Amino acid sequence: RRRMVKHIVMWKLKEENKAENAAKMCDILRDLKGKVPVIRDLSVGVDFNRSDAAYDVALIVTLNTPADVEIYQKHPDHVKAGDFIKGVISARAVVDFEC
To answer: Cα-atom radius of gyration of the chain, to the nearest Å?
Structure first.
């Protein structure tokens, strides 16, 4: 069985313009799939549950190797996405694991 890496990120957004910023984040992140060659698969979405423990936006990226995580993170389009995201979030959680 071929191993892979899951890169999962969750964000809590600042209240100001939350809905439009969440939608823009999703668009920007979905765009990465066609721009960053090491991405095998990418899913992103906005939370609908709204529990106190919930984050607002979640991203799951599938990559081939742990080394691909660094390639993904340093890619200019990922850096550009991060520049926008950093300005609209209040918290971030990340996990990277092999499966």
So the answer is: 13
Phi, psi dihedral angles at 12 (to 5 degrees):
-105, 130
CB neighbours of 29 closer than 8 A, spacing ≥ 6? 42, 44, 59, 81
* Whole-angstrom distance, CA of residue 45 vs CA of residue 79: 20
The string of pLDDT tens digits covering residues 19-73 is: 999 999 999 999 999 999 999 999 999 999 989 999 999 999 999 999 999 999 9
pTM: 0.94
Does residue 72 contact residue 8 with C-beta atoms inside 8 Å? no
